[in-house]
Specification:
Largest sheet: 11 strands, mixed
Strand content: 15-25%
Number of strands: 18
Radius of gyration: 25 Å
Shape: globular
Distance between the termini: 39 Å
C-alpha cells in the first residue's frame, strides 16, 4: 500500500473511532474512555504488587489484576455500550496499525559480499540444543555431505568448545561454525575473530536470537548450511564484557546478544531456578524489586548515569522498542553501538507509568559505545547470552564494530521491516502531502551519537 494512502486510511479510521464514541455514547464516551484507562492502570498496579509482595497481599493483588478487566467489561455491558467500545477500539487499533505501516521505512540491509566456499569448514554441534534439533533435522549428515568436518559434543563429557575451534584452525580449518545455543555461538565466534576466519551460524538452539537478527531461517536449521556452498559475508559487531580496570583482552568475554544485570540475572543464578522457574522467580522478586536484596547498581553510559535500576540490559546493537512484538529483535548488527535498557520501578504508580512505553518514568533507553556498571558489592551476577556468571565490579561493556565475518546463505528469509512508534503529526503530514518532497521529509532517521535516544530520570 502506498504510504500516503495508508496515512489517509489511518486518519480516517482514527476519526471513525472517535465518531463512533461521540455519536452513540455522547458525553458518556469520556467516562467510557476514563473507565478503560483506569482499569488498565489498576491492572498493571495489581501485577506489580503480585511480583513485589508476598502472602495475603499477593493473593489480593492477583484478584485485583484478574477482576478489574472483568469489572470494566461489566460496566460497559450495564451501560449498553459494550459494542460501541469494541467497534471504537477495533477502529483505533486499525488506525494505529496502518499509521505505523505508513511511517515504516525500507530497512537497509547490512552490506554483504560474495565469497568462495570454504575448503575445510569445521562445525561444532550440540545434540542437546533446541530439544535435539541436530538429530531431528539430520544436521550432522547434511554438513558432512557438504564437505564439513563435524564434531558432535558429548553431553556426558563437557568440552571446551573454544579450544576445539582453535585446534581445528591450527589443523587447517578455514571456516568455523556452530549448531547450538547463542552462548556456544559467542565462544566460537571469539575464536573466529581471533584467527580471522569466517563464522557460520546454524540455528539449532532454543531461541536463536542471533540467527534471527542475521535473517536466518529458524524453522529449518538445515537451511543455514547453505552458507557453506552459496554464501555471502556480513561484517557484524561483537559485544565484549570485562573488568573496567585494568582492561585486557584476556579478561573480556564476547557476547553476541546481550548481558543482563539486576533482578533477572540474580533469579537465573539461583540453584532452584532450573527445577522450578515460576516458583523461584516469585520467591525472589519481592526482595529484588524493593531493593531489600541484591546490589545497588549504577550505570554510566556516555554522559548519562542511571542510579539504582532494578534491571539493566546491555545489548550488542540496540533492540527495537517501537512495539512489544519488536522488543527482542535488532534491525541491524553493524551500527557500532551498544543498546542499553534500564528499568527503575519502585512502586505501583511507576509500574503503571510504564504503559507509556519509551516515555514512561523509570525507563531508560540509550545507545553508547561503552557502558560501565558499578555496584556497592565486589561482585555482581550477570546473564551473558543466557549463561549465568558472577563478575567483579566495576564491569565494562564495549563493542567491536564489524569484527566478526559471518557467512550466511544468499537465499534467506531476511530481517523484517521495523515499524516505528505511532506519530500522528507525521501521519497527518503524509496524508496531506504528495510527491517526492513528502517522501524526502519522511525518510530521515536520527543518527545514534552515544547520547540517550530517550531518557526519563
Amino acid at each position: 500500500m502506498d504510504k500516503h494512502w495508508a496515512a489517509r486510511l489511518a486518519l480516517a479510521a482514527g476519526a471513525a473511532a472517535l465518531l463512533v464514541l461521540l455519536v452513540f455514547a455522547g458525553l458518556r464516551s469520556v467516562a467510557l474512555v476514563g473507565a478503560g484507562l483506569a482499569g488498565l492502570v489498576v491492572t498493571v498496579a495489581g501485577v506489580w504488587w503480585v511480583l513485589a509482595r508476598r502472602g495475603v497481599i499477593r493473593v489480593l493483588a492477583l484478584m485485583l489484576a484478574a477482576l478489574t478487566p472483568v469489572a470494566v467489561l461489566v460496566l460497559y455491558v450495564l451501560a449498553g455500550l459494550l459494542w460501541v467500545v469494541l467497534v471504537s477500539f477495533a477502529l483505533w487499533a486499525l488506525a494505529v496499525s496502518v499509521g505505523r505501516v505508513a511511517l515504516a521505512q525500507n530497512a537497509d540491509r547490512m552490506p554483504e559480499r560474495s565469497v568462495t566456499p570454504a575448503k575445510r569448514p569445521f562445525l561444532i554441534m550440540n545434540p542437546r540444543s533446541g530439544g535435539g534439533k541436530v538429530e531431528r533435522f539430520g544436521l550432522v549428515d547434511q554438513a558432512r555431505a557438504l564437505g564439513a568436518e563435524v564434531v558432535v559434543l558429548d553431553p556426558a563429557h563437557p568440552a571446551d568448545v573454544a579450544e576445539l575451534a582453535k585446534q581445528a584452525v591450527d589443523a587447517g580449518a578455514d571456516l568455523l561454525g556452530v549448531a547450538g545455543g547463542d552462548g556456544t555461538q559467542a565462544l566460537v565466534a571469539a575464536v573466529a575473530v581471533e584467527r580471522d576466519v569466517p563464522f557460520v551460524v546454524v540455528a539449532a538452539g532454543t531461541r536463536n536470537h542471533f540467527a534471527m537478527d542475521l535473517g536466518l531461517d529458524r524453522e529449518d536449521p538445515s537451511a543455514c548450511l547453505g552458507a557453506l556452498t552459496d554464501g555471502v559475508e556480513l561484517r557484524v559487531d561483537l559485544g565484549l564484557l570485562g573488568v573496567a580496570a585494568p582492561r585486557t583482552e584476556s579478561t573480556e568475554r564476547v557476547f553476541v546478544n546481550n548481558v543482563s544485570f539486576g533482578a533477572y540475572a540474580a533469579v537465573v543464578q539461583s540453584s532452584a531456578y532450573r527445577d522450578d522457574k515460576a516458583r523461584t522467580t516469585l520467591q525472589m522478586l519481592p526482595n529484588l524489586l524493593t531493593h531489600h536484596s541484591g546490589p545497588h547498581l549504577t550505570v554510566h553510559a556516555g554522559s548519562t548515569t542511571v542510579d539504582g535500576p532494578q534491571a539493566v540490559l546491555v545489548s550488542n546493537n540496540a533492540y527495537l522498542t517501537g512495539d512489544p512484538a519488536g522488543l527482542g529483535r535488532r534491525e541491524r548488527l553493524d551500527s557500532g553501538l551498544l543498546g542499553v535498557l534500564g528499568v527503575t520501578v519502585d512502586n505501583a504508580g511507576q509500574a503503571a507509568l510504564l504503559l507509556r512505553g519509551r516515555h514512561g518514568t523509570g525507563l531508560t533507553l540509550l545507545t553508547a559505545r561503552e557502558v560501565v556498571i558499578d555496584a556497592d558489592a565486589p561482585d555482581i551476577q550477570a546473564g551473558v547470552d543466557g549463561e549465568a556468571l558472577t563478575v567483579p565490579t566495576p564491569v565494562r561493556c564495549r563493542i567491536e564494530p564489524g569484527t566478526l565475518r559471518v557467512q550466511v546463505p544468499r537465499d534467506r528469509p531476511g530481517i523484517p521491516r521495523a515499524k516505528p512508534p505511532m506519530d500522528w503529526r507525521r501521519v497527518r503530514r503524509l496524508a496531506l502531502t504528495l510527491g517526492e518532497a513528502a517522501g524526502r521529509r519522511e525518510t530521515g532517521c536520527p543518527v545514534a551519537t552515544g547520547r540517550p535516544t530517550r531518557r526519563i530520570p
